[in-house]
Inverse folding.
């Protein structure tokens, strides 16, 4: 028994020894003899990341109507490193399939923006037949792939184009800034409007798959993946119905203006303009129209030569948002604000009476410069309210002269001007903070600006320093003061709502793909203008007189003011060598003490405010209150300023 057990142990030990020898031999083979082969195979394998674009967030109006959505496009891409020696032949085949010129494809493939190993997009909206042909003939199209990608679509066409903006392939300077946030050279980003401002919300999060591939690019195995997350949706304060009707009212009003003539008998050009409708209590943009406009879908397909010429060689600058990016002298619409400034500084009184003379000369002004009223008649003494109603220039000229006297008295060591300071308290010469890009700031002229201002030839614009005309012309919205229509609307909003200087905003809410509210946008209405409720109410009452018996009376003839109270101010602003800018700034609502909306209309080279801008506004008000008895807007070829 002992001998048998010993024999078995020897056999077992022998087997174990053989196993260790085999294992050692295999390890030696793997580590020594096969090491170079494995090293070569490992080098030929690599990790590859595949990215899946997230669906870009959509944009809806205040009632949930879609303004920007997505649809699929077939995009053809070429990876230059995979073309081998067939590059020229492949380019010719792709050109035949897509209709894109071979030279354009070659230029895109040679772009230094991409690495040779990157798939470079060369054609969008490829026909499905071409897609199938590429897939069925891979030997003819090495390095070519057709991918389904989402692109933007605009259900309302060019409506609100300046607000919505457009998307496009990331540009070099954008890539330098955004690559740290995970953007690639093939990514689409917002290039203008809300698409640009809210890019980080709309973009979403790309999906990513980590793969092991061999040297031929064949998949060996997947290491893991994360799905894409759709971008957030924007819900606007904009009302599509009001936007459409406001745009049509502006186009119709401009067409009518071109049937009239300026003071020199020259037909009005009325070539551009804007309409802004704000919620008077929140700052929400209900409508914002800028004409001429463009179609953002052009950028989805790529601009044709005709479209490019229209956008970039057109002297009327269709890409410019005239509501926020263009500045103008505001004309008599400014008197509502400068009149309050005169009261604030004790220059005028709400109970005072002031002479409306045919012309005004500043006492003590050695130049003897005369500033003329719009009429040669002496209209006698009147209140500020009546001066606003009939738009008497010389009453306000005299207030401007008094502001200059204050400057002279107070300027030692300060170089300050009270009128300029008071105007900045209304937000002029500052961006309004609206959630749209490239907002203009305008200009409030003052002694400090005059000290450095130059003429076109480089000579001083004010060789004798600040002069009385600086304050006098600013007082009536003339001279060098420049405002955007939105800045003026913001100021009128403060008059309407009791002094709250709200920030205008187009977006009301940002909603996640899950339907939850990610962020609410409001007007931050805590800032106040330094005027009492009584002073603001005085101006609102005076501006109602403008509509019922003043310079806007014609435009509102037959309007049911007993149902909807309208208060507004016409303006006719000189803009040499161009024709006058036509203005009407207004507030409207069922309660005369609490206006619901502020509307500002401006038409470049549109003539008198009472003839062009006021009738346009009348039509916009009809759009805001469609249940009113339908009224006919009269044609007003008047000379009221």
């Amino acid at each position: 028994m002992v001998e048998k057990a010993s024999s078995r142990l020897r056999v077992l030990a022998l087997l174990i020894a053989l196993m260790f020898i085999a294992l050692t031999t295999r390890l030696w083979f793997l580590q020594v003899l096969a090491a170079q082969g494995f090293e070569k195979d490992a080098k030929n394998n690599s990790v590859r990341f595949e990215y899946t674009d997230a669906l870009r967030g959509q944009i809806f109006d205040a009632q949930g109507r879609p303004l920007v959505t997505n649809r699929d496009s077939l995009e053809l891409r070429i990876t230059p490193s995979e073309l081998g020696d067939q590059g020229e032949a492949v380019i010719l085949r792709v050109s035949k399939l897509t209709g894109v010129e071979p030279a354009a494809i070659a230029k895109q493939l040679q772009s230094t923006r991409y690495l040779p190993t990157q798939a470079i997009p060369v054609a969008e909206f490829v026909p499905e037949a071409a897609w199938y042909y590429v897939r069925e003939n891979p030997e003819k199209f090495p390095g070519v792939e057709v991918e389904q990608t989402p692109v933007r679509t605009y259900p309302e066409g060019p409506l609100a184009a300046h607000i919505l903006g457009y998307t496009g392939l990331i540009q070099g300077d954008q890539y330098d800034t955004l690559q740290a946030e995970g953007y690639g050279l093939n990514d689409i980003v917002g290039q203008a409007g809300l698409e640009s401002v809210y890019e980080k919300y709309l973009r979403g999060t790309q999906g990513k798959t980590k793969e092991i591939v061999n040297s031929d690019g064949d998949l060996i195995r997947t290491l893991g993946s994360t799905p894409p997350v759709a971008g957030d949706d924007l819900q606007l304060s904009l009302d599509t119905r009001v936007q459409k009707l406001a745009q049509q009212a502006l186009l119709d009003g401009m067409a009518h203006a071109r049937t009239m003539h300026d003071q020199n008998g020259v037909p009005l050009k009325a070539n551009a303009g804007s309409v802004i409708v704000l919620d008077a209590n929140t700052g929400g943009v209900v409508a914002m129209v800028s004409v001429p406009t463009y179609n953002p879908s052009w950028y989805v397909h790529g601009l044709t030569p005709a479209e490019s010429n229209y956008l970039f060689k057109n002297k009327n600058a269709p890409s410019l948002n005239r509501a926020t990016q263009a500045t103008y002298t505001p004309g008599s619409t400014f008197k509502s604000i400068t009149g309050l400034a005169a009261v604030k500084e004790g220059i005028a009184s709400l109970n005072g009476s002031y002479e409306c003379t045919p012309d005004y000369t500043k006492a003590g002004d050695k130049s003897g410069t005369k500033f003329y009223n719009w009429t040669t008649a002496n209209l006698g003494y009147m209140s500020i309210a009546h001066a606003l109603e009939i738009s008497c220039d010389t009453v306000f000229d005299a207030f401007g002269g008094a502001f200059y006297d204050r400057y002279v008295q107070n300027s030692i060591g300060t170089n300050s001007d009270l009128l300029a300071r008071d105007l900045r308290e209304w937000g002029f010469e500052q961006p309004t903070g609206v959630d749209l890009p490239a907002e203009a700031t305008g200009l409030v002229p003052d002694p400090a600006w005059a000290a450095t201002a130059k003429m076109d030839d480089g000579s001083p614009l004010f060789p004798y320093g600040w002069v009385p005309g600086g304050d006098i012309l600013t007082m009536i919205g003339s001279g060098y003061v420049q405002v955007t229509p939105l800045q003026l609307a913001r100021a009128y909003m403060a008059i309407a709502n009791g002094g709250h200087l709200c920030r205008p905003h187009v977006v009301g809410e940002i909603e996640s793909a899950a339907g939850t509210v990610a962020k609410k946008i409001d007007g931050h209405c805590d800032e106040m203008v330094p005027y009492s409720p009584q002073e603001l109410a005085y101006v609102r009452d005076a501006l109602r007189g403008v509509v019922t018996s003043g310079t806007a009376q014609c435009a509102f003839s037959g309007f049911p003011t007993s149902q909807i109270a309208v208060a507004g101010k016409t303006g006719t602003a000189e803009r040499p060598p161009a024709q006058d800018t036509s203005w009407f700034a207004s507030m409207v609502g069922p309660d005369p003490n609490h206006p619901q909306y502020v509307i500002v209309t401006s038409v470049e080279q549109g003539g008198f405010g009472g003839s062009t801008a006021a009738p346009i506004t009348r039509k916009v008000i009809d759009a805001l209150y469609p249940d009113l008895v339908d009224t006919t807007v009269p044609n007003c070829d008047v000379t009221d300023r």
Remarks:
- Residues 109 and 162 are 33 Å apart (CA to CA).
